Amino acid sequence: MSAPVSSELAPGLMLADDVTIPPSVTLGAHVVIHAGVRIGERVTVEDAAVLGKLPKLGPRSYAPATDTAELTIAPGAVICALAIVLAGAEIGPEAVVGDHVFVREFARIGAGSVIGHGSAIGREVEIGSRVRLQNSVVVAPGTTIEDEVDVGPGACTITNSWRPGEQAARTILRERCRIGAGAVVMPGVEIGTDAIVGAGSVVRESVASGSVVAGRPARRLRGDS
Question: Which pTM was predicted?
Fold first, then answer.
């Protein structure tokens, strides 16, 4: 990271030496952009956002160390105030990363998706196009969220703990499914296409396409078994 530079782009900007800012980009105050960040045309980065920082892993973390990786922000994307997007992530065209959102390394957020205030996106999460995650959603490492999924505020997916050489149980939210506010989706569960999970549910088993489930644990209310 270079020292703060004198720039007409924004007050307090900290910009790594290898980063180029296209003329159409809008930067807020006190933005920090680390090395290896690639920013497309018409991107907006709001106040105090941090782009491209390397992860700091705890002593018990099994995530592999990341020395350097390119963060790509596609044209028209918006990174809102105080968001942190780590090295290796990919933000798609016209996607919106909300205020105070944390996006881990190698996560991918698809075109036109919106990540609500205070949400956390785990390592290697795959989010499709036109997905809407409302406020304070937590997406566990390795989760796949397909196109046009809607996840209510405070919902989360859970990862299982694994050690080197063990395979993580991947959680999948299929196209157009809806997850209610405060729902918890357990490791390895698949929520089918167009399925609905009621608010506050704890989903321990996979849900068939088109089904409606609710409860703690979630039980089928409508649809195929």
Answer: 0.90
